[in-house]
Amino acid sequence: MSQDDEIWHAFREAIRQDDTGQFTVSTRDFVAELQQRNAPHTLRAANTWIEMHITTFSDISVEPGECRLFQMPAAHD
After folding, report:
1. What are all long-range contacts of 59-63, with beta carbons under 8 Å and residues at least 24 apart?
2. Domain of life here (predicted)?
3. What's the start-to-end Cα distance of the chain, in Å?
4. How far apart are CA 16 and CA 28, in angstroms?
5. What's the confidence (pLDDT) of residue 3?
6. Pairing mode, if any, of strands 16-17 and 58-59?
7. Pairing between strand 69-71 and 23-26?
8. Is-contact 26 67, C-beta < 8 A?
9. DSSP letters of the chain?
10. Angstrom distance (rounded) from CA 28 to CA 33
11. CA distance 26 to 30
């Protein structure tokens, strides 16, 4: 599998669903998944990758810093 494929797979594995059905990804979880796939990234590099490749998630972080939280907007019925 190419490194690009590994990064996409790591992102998908880092997605979490909360009790309300919202999908989120924390930079910390994404970096941990990347580490497991021998594709290490810093928190800053992971944030940059998310910002460049993922347009369906918005930054909902409440604290400053590189450990950020991204959320997919809720689907409207």
Report:
1. 60/24
2. Bacteria
3. 37
4. 12
5. 80
6. unpaired
7. antiparallel
8. yes
9. --HHHHHHHHHHHH-EE-TTS-EEEEHHHHHHHHHHTT----HHHHHHHHHHH-SS-EE---S-SS--EEEPPPPP-
10. 9
11. 6
Q: Distance between CA 20 and CA 22 in Å, rounded?
A: 6
- Least Cα distance to 73 among 11, 5, 6, 22 occurs for 22
Residues composing the chain = 77
Q: Mean pLDDT for each consecutive 10-residue tract of the chain (77 residues)?
A: 86 94 96 94 96 94 95 73
Residue where the block lists tokens 């809720």: 74
Q: What tokens does 36 get?
A: 């497991």
Q: Is the separation of the CB atoms in 10 and 39 below 8 Å? A: yes
Which residues touch 68 (CB under 8 Å, ≥6 apart)? Answer: 26, 27, 43, 47, 59, 61
